[in-house]
Amino acid sequence: MAVTYQGRCHCGAITVEHTSDIPPAEAEVRECQCSFCRLHGARAVSDPAGQVRFTEQTPGTLNRYSFGLKTADFVLCRNCGTYMGCILTDGEAAYGIVNIRTLNDKALFTSQPIAADYDSEDQSGRIARRKSKWTPAVVIAGLASLLD
Ligand SMILES: [Zn+2]
């Protein structure tokens, strides 16, 4: 049965919901070895059959950051700097991962983290991997952003 795991940034301006029917103790936990994720001590999970939803509780606080091949956006809170997860957008579709450090129930994700090094991927390979392994994603912007 699908369970929704709630999380938030440090200041609460952005919330995240990761919905999955994979028991958290069996979810693959990945420690991406890129310079950004290592800096943040990030641990990611995803579920292609689930959903991840980032919601801007305070308008204008969801900051997207990209670097390197610029194939995805890292989601950060503009207020407190918390790294929430990452999103790949492809037309109408979006795929994401959640940084489980932000989840209230992070302690339930007990799998030994896998050190994941994606340096050898080219751009198309990276996008293909994310589409097959990442979670269908939704971003809900605050009211102010919608009026921009
Ligand atoms: Zn914040």
Q: Can you lay out the helices and strands and say which pair or pack?
A:
Layout lengths: L2 E6 L5 E7 L9 E3 L2 H6 L3 E2 L5 E6 L5 E4 L7 E5 L5 E8 L2 E7 L14 E3 L6 H11 L1 E6 L2 H5 L1
Bound molecules: zinc ion.
In short:
With 148 residues, this protein is mainly beta. Helices cover 15% and strands 39% of the residues.
Describe this structure in words.
- By secondary structure, this protein is mostly beta strands.
- The protein has a single domain, classed as Metal Binding Protein, Guanine Nucleotide Exchange Factor, Chain A.
- Helix content is 15%, strand content 39%.
- The chain is built from 3 helices and 11 strands, in the order E-E-E-H-E-E-E-E-E-E-E-H-E-H.
- The strands form 2 sheets. Strands 1, 2, 4, 5, 6, 7, 8, 9 and 11 form a 9-stranded mixed beta sheet that branches. It has a two-stranded parallel ribbon with strand order 3-10.
- The chain starts with a strand and ends with a helix.
- The structure holds zinc ion.
Low-confidence residue ranges = none
Distance between the termini: 39 Å
Helix and strand element order = EEEHEEEEEEEHEH
Q: Could you report the average pLDDT, rounded to the nearest whole number?
A: 93
Determine Rg (CA atoms, Å). Answer: 14 Å
If classified by CATH, what would the architecture be?
A: Beta Complex
Count of domain modules:
1
Count up the helices. Answer: 3
Largest sheet: 9 strands, mixed
Q: What name is given to the CATH topology? A: Metal Binding Protein, Guanine Nucleotide Exchange Factor, Chain A
Helix content range: 10-25%
CATH top level is: Mainly Beta
User: Which ligands appear in the coordinates?
Assistant: zinc ion
Helix/strand-derived class? mainly beta
The coarse silhouette is: globular
Approximately how much beta-strand content do the residues carry? 35-45%
